[in-house]
Amino acid sequence: MDEVNQTGQTTIQVLIVDDHTIVRKGTRALLAEVEDIQVVGEAADGREAVDQADTLRPDVILMDLVMPVMDGIEATRQITGNQPETRILALTSFAADDKVFPAIKAGALGYLLKHADPEELVDAIRKVYRGEPSLHPSIARKVLQEMRRPTIKTPTPDPLTEREIEVLHLVAKGLSNQEIAGQLSIAEVTVRTHVSNILSKLHLANRVQAALYALREGFAELDELDAKEG
Q1: Model pTM score
Q2: From residue 30, how far is each of 4, 98, 204 by CA, in Å?
């Protein structure tokens, strides 16, 4: 992990997981043209993905959600449980895929439609590598519909502070820690502390879950996410 290429850039090591060989080969060929990304392996199902992740320790895994033997949700759950430093970018053919919402609970940090432009894929890989959520707006709408169904709210005996709510709002807009620090005129390390406190208080696994929580509770609006993605 965190290898450096000949130009001095950090190389993002990627594992491609999809049960269609042509998709894997096509994605590999596409990413081969990107200087700061290196494909280190492929897997045809979730079980292979878990094994490959354990062996290769990639930075980012492109995870198909619907596969034989073991689906992408269970593979994501196992990998994030064993290797929390590995980022999962879930790929789905349809925004209405009923596996997208469960994938959030499993710990995936990004969600992308398979027909997305190559530039969108590369941008999403870089974002999740940095630990930032990457959520296509059409998928966000689907997830929010699921989240708006009556549920018991996450217990928060220790409420968010005013500053934490500000940070949460900016996280929901897709800003990085550095961008949040600049906007609020605070140190980046302070932003990291606020994000950590937010996740702890809300019992959430990662930034994408925090972003969706902010959208559901009205701390941010979906059109703000649209603007960031567009």
Answers
A1: 0.66
A2: 20, 28, 33
Chain Cα centroid distance, residue 144: 16
CATH topology of domain 3-146: Rossmann fold (3.40.50)
- Are the beta carbons of 181 and 187 closer than 8 angstroms? yes
Domain boundaries, the chain: 3-146, 152-229
Give, in order, the Cα–Cα distances in Å from 105 to each of 22, 171, 212, 228: 29, 18, 11, 23
Out of 3.50.50.60, 1.10.238.10, 1.10.10.10, 3.90.1210.10, which CATH number does the structure's domain 152-229 have?
1.10.10.10
Per DSSP bridges, beta strands 10-17 and 37-43 are parallel
Tens digit of pLDDT per residue, the chain (230 long)? 555 555 556 899 999 999 999 999 999 999 999 999 999 999 999 999 999 999 999 999 999 988 889 999 899 999 988 888 899 998 887 655 566 677 777 888 888 888 888 998 999 999 889 887 777 666 666 665 555 554 444 555 678 899 999 998 888 877 778 889 999 999 999 999 999 999 888 888 777 778 778 877 777 665 555 444 44
Q: Which has the closest alpha carbon to 36: 60, 62, 64?
A: 60
Which of these, 68, 60, 143, 151, lies nearest to 100 by C-alpha position? 143
Most distant CA pair in the chain, distance: 53
Task: Give yes or no for a contact between 49 and 75, defined as CB atoms under 8 angstroms apart.
Answer: yes
